[in-house]
Design brief:
Layout lengths: L5 E5 L4 H7 L8 H8 L5 E10 L4 E8 L4 H6 L2 H17 L4 E4 L11 H5 L4 E3 L2 H18 L8 E5 L4 H10 L5 E5 L3 H15 L4 E3 L2 H7 L2 E4 L18 E4 L9 H5 L4 E4 L2 E3 L2 E4 L10 E3 H11 L14 H14 L2 E2 L3 E2 L2 E2 L2 H19 L2
Helix pairs in contact: 6-7, 6-11, 6-12, 11-12
Length: 364
Amino acid sequence: MKQIEFAFIVHPLTMDDFLKKFGFMRHLPQFLARAAASFFPPVVASYISGISSPYNSTAGCFIGVTLTSEQMLQLPQEVSLRKIIAAGKKAAQAGAKIIGLGAMTAVVGDAGITVAQNLNIAVTTGNSYTVATALEGTYRAAKLMGLDMERARIAVLGASGSIGSACARILARKANFLTLTARNVSRLERLAEDILADTGLAVKVTTDVTEAVKKADVIIAVSGAAGSIIDPEDLKPGAVVCDVARPRDVSAKVAQKRDDVLVIEGGIVEVPGDVQLNFDFGFPPGTAYACMAETMILALEKRFENFSLGRELHVSRIDEISTLAAKHGFKLAGLRSFERPVSTETIQNIKEKARLKNFCKANN
């Protein structure tokens, strides 16, 4: 196998995910299993091979940190950061020259800056390419649902984070009705001031996620919450939601109860070559999260440097990684919803059911 050049850090989203890997701990009370998980060292979860573009090829591995999303939010920051840094050192020992931070490992602390300062290899959160593909998927889905992004009411959940704020800045170039939500009001207000100065658009800011969702035609969900924050009753008929967050911001109940809204997974891309992840994320063969893909792209380019770090992403970096992705043959995968592909026919059915519900509401 080709020598490892990159690694990507992953972690179980829930205790159930952890227990799938360490089944011998199922007999323990859950609080003991949680405590034990916090002491496990990082592990090489799988090796990644077959990534090949017309210009280069590369190989890597997944490094597992045994903390759940909830634990990363609840434990003292220094504990989570120590685990992530240990995983980075494990990656370096395996030969990696750059690591990507996955899921909550890209959120904890200062979004990768402290991790990078404590390692001798490059670090990226993958957030630049995640933004690019999330927006591309959202534009595509909105067009199929007959929504005009210039006239639609758009909400960004988690707008104070690195992905959310970058999405908001880019959306503000075209949008006329934009609402930003997050827990930190002061960050939201600073972002709103920047957007007004840059684009002339006065955006609305709120901490009331439910109210923002109920009014929105298009939603970018990237809150960084430990569990779902969008329930079936929150969405208006015909709404489009791009759920970039992991764990998901959109409750699984939406798929069961709402056949008149379109929820897509943000940031799923096709990887060039005969890629073997050897790890089941529930995706079709040859596809991966955009954050993973950013790490792969930088490895193919031999750009072993810190790329997407911190709470503020630069639009120039988003444009640059998009150009490099196209060069090496990475592209947005077909639209997917709750780990299943969404056909054009399905979208037309959703659109029609939304039209009928809106017609009934207007005539009652």
